[in-house]
Amino acid sequence: VPQGAAAGAGTAGATRNTTTSAPPTLDSLARDVTRLESLREVKDVQRQYTHLAQFGRWKEMAELFAKNGTLQWGEQTATGRKAIEAWLRQDAGGFDGRSPGSLHTVIIDQPVANLSVDGRTAKVRWDGMRFLGDGKGRARIEGGLYENEYVLEGGAWKISKLVYHPQYEGEYADGWKNVDGRDLPIIPPHFTLDETGIPVPPATGPAPRTKATAKELANRIARLNDEDDARNVQNAYGYYVDRRMWTDVVDLFASNAEFRIDGLGTFKGRSGVRQALERSMGPEGLTHGVLNEYPIWDLIVEVKPNGREAIARGIQIGLLGEADEKKGAWEFAVFRNHLVKEDGLWKLSRVHITPLIRADYAQGWGDGGSGPRVRRDAPPFLKPDWRTKAAGPGGPGGNHDLADLKRRLDRSVAWDGAENVGSAYGFIIDDFQWPWMAGLFAENGHKQSPFAGYYFGRERILGAVNATYNGPLPPDALRASISFHWLTQPVIMVSHDGRSANMRTRLWQPRTSRTGSPGFDGLHGGMYHNQAVLEDGIWRLWSVTIDEHYWETPNWKAGWAGAEDPDPNAPPPPESPLLTRYPPDIKLTELGEREEGFRGGTGQWIKWPGILPMWFHYRNPVSGRTPDRFWPDCVPCVARPDASMTSHGYQMPPVGPNIDGRDLQQ
């Protein structure tokens, strides 16, 4: 266990980040820009690995590794690009993503990324799953954890060591269980407690002389900021699609929009966008038993040098169903979308979806489902090194004042810091490391304990989880079962000063056990509404709220479409034991409408296949349309106004269309 993992709830951990008040110089700013670009390229290298895997591009995947790079898959090891290519090809076998009807969809997401102090190496922890099919009747699912290392080699970032720890696997017909039916160990993370909130550590020594001008740095920073905004639009689009919020989806598009689904057609204009959505997914709004989940994975966003165009490419997995009719389906696809910047706001201009397989849930995708039997060419890939390749003088750089450029750069550093600490939260609670989890929070932070209420301050947060789980697990513990907490598809709104952020992330929750018992052999879905702040130079969680479960699989065989409504004559689920054992500072029942329908909250409990209310912390990022359920600040702020980050010297991040962290509607 890394230093700091066992730190008390009131301590910050192993190391403290130190910052100086010295004004930036051109040299120091150039170094800082390069370091953030490096961290993002590292993450995109791994995302590119998944994009290539989907189409069986083994040679190109191997070229993402350093010359003497290593792939370690459980007990198997391959070193060097030729050996890695051979291993990838052999491991895939018939699950190659190229043969008619085959599937090789890999998702590697939820990064906790850390650049080295010298900026030449990096480490990233990822969660991963593989959805495999040979088109001849066989299908598998595998999942585990990656602890990878990266190196700057020949001016480009490469994977120096990919280390995969298999945790669960199984044939589709039977579902998955723990690998070899054994108990699962805790995989030591590469990071300390504080390092979760310092993805880019301060550099040491004098900055090297730079040849870049202030205008060139301004353009590079502008592209980083634009990348954040475009990523938010793409991920927000995904959440609106999940809820069939077609009006909000259409609002995200430019007037000359185009929506193309291979095999269905191309639709022009905003009216065409709506037509495509309704034809492919149904009418606006969710009704009882309808599931329309389209999680977005491994998203790469490339901003063009002119600063007015961008491309977003990623993986899309559809979990679809009508529980009232006991029908469920899977969809696997890749998207390559274009965005444009108009009047300072990023909008979708063209969506292009390439479906790979659609399969009935009961049958699975082993026989190729109803997707194309002849493999189409892959939509063009993006290059992870686009930031450095496009680092010329073109594009609108704006103000060239060095202090303001540093502030704008800090806003993008904040995006990665907030993502890092949110991802770390998921990994740490998977491993029941409660003192470390409490240490992720700011001194005055607060956390919701499911079905009970909110606890304020690290000691109370730690007390609640200890009371629930009888303390943390020792580092050498073995687990018979795990409920994983992936926090993915982030929409992160950063304040103007780069010191606070609102975060919306999907909860993707695979569960596994030794035997694959019901409840631990499937998937569950929820939504996190979190906030983060920069405290003493380290990103910390300010507020954590989990809305769950929007959907679930009662067991693998039945899937999400096999869920049944609770017996109306049965008593409601029991209260959380915490209400008497360790009472929260604010109960969910004190929060009125905000917790209506949620277990432990107000009103009648709504359980899937019922449709829970969906809350948003932001207005539509293009049109400013206010959603039916809008809650811009922390959830307990309605009962405790002093819980707001603004009461502690932080700015409220934007809650709708914004330019440079300033709301346009204020």
Would you mind describing this structure in some detail?
By secondary structure, the protein is of the alpha+beta class. The protein has eleven helices and 26 strands. The chain has helices at 26-53, 58-62, 81-92, 214-242, 246-251, 269-281, 386-389, 402-430, 434-439, 458-469, 578-581; strands at 65-73, 76-79, 103-115, 121-133, 139-153, 156-171, 177-178, 184-185, 253-261, 265-268, 290-293, 296-303, 309-322, 327-342, 345-360, 441-449, 453-456, 478-479, 481-483, 486-494, 500-513, 523-535, 538-552, 586-587, 658-659, 662-663. The strands form five sheets. Strands 16, 17, 19, 20, 21, 22, 23 and 24 form an eight-stranded mixed beta sheet that branches. A hairpin with a 5-residue loop joins strand 6 and strand 7. Helix 1 runs parallel beside helix 4 (214-242), helix 1 (26-53) crosses helix 8 and helix 4 (214-242) packs parallel to helix 8. Residues 1-20 have low confidence and may be disordered.
* Residue-averaged pLDDT: 94
What is the makeup of the main sheet?
Answer: 8 strands, mixed
Helix content: 10-25%
The gyration radius over C-alpha positions equals: 24 Å
List the total number of helices: 11
Total strands: the figure is: 26
Oligomer: single chain
Q: Could you say which structural class the secondary elements and strand pairing correspond to? A: alpha+beta
Shape: globular
Q: Strand portion, in percent?
A: 25-35%
Please mark out the parts with pLDDT under 50 across 5 or more consecutive residues, or reply none: 1-20
Distance linking N and C termini: 47 Å
